[in-house]
Amino acid sequence: NAAAMAADTIQLFLETGTIRDSVNFPACALPARDEEMIHRVCVVTENRPGMLGELMSVFGGAGINVSQQINTSKGEIAYNVVDLELPRNADGKPELSSFKSFDELQAAIMELDGVKSSRLISDWCPGTGYAIKAGGEVIGIGVDSPEQESYAALAA
């Protein structure tokens, strides 16, 4: 049934970042990690040389390990799914010397030229963490986002 297939596709995208059967985006699937301390980030960028390196430098600069990632492209668009692992102290608690917050990490990602949008996927915060660039302004990081009718209305 087509409706069930569409619902499954949307659910898979929201929960894991997987893209399949899309007209405008490349197919992309990164296996889920069973580990509790893995956080997934999905980033839409321009498909150009050096873009992936710039993105990975943001994670390295925050002292965050990339445990796995995939980059796929279609035309001028690249889609990246990245699993991040926060550094840990000997007692297993997050070491936050370089990493301050997911909002700051997402702001650093969105500052890169060529980044179109980013989304954080985490079990502890489902359905949040989406940011988009519209007219040179970043919308959606933190709770101080300006009111708008919809993200689609921003692109119009």
Task: From the structure above, extract its key features.
6 strands; six-stranded antiparallel sheet; 28% strand; 156 residues; single chain; alpha+beta
Layout of strands and helices, then pairs:
Elements lengths: L1 H15 L21 E9 L4 H11 L3 E10 L2 E9 L16 H10 L3 E7 L8 E5 L2 E3 L11 H5 L1
Antiparallel strand pairs: 1-3, 1-4, 2-3, 4-5, 5-6
Descriptive account of the structure:
With 156 residues, this protein is an alpha+beta fold. It is built from 4 helices and 6 strands. Strands 2-3-1-4-5-6 form a 6-stranded antiparallel β-sheet, sandwiched between helices.
Shape: globular
* Averaged pLDDT: 82
Low-confidence stretches: none
Order of helices and strands: HEHEEHEEEH
Number of helices: 4
Number of strands: 6
- The first-to-last residue Cα distance is 33 Å
Strand percent estimate: 25-35%
Helix content: 25-40%
**Class of secondary structure makeup:** alpha+beta
Give the radius of gyration.
16 Å
Largest sheet: 6 strands, antiparallel
Q: How do the strands of the widest beta sheet line up side by side? A: 2-3-1-4-5-6
Quick gist of this model?
Helix content is 26%, strand content 28%.
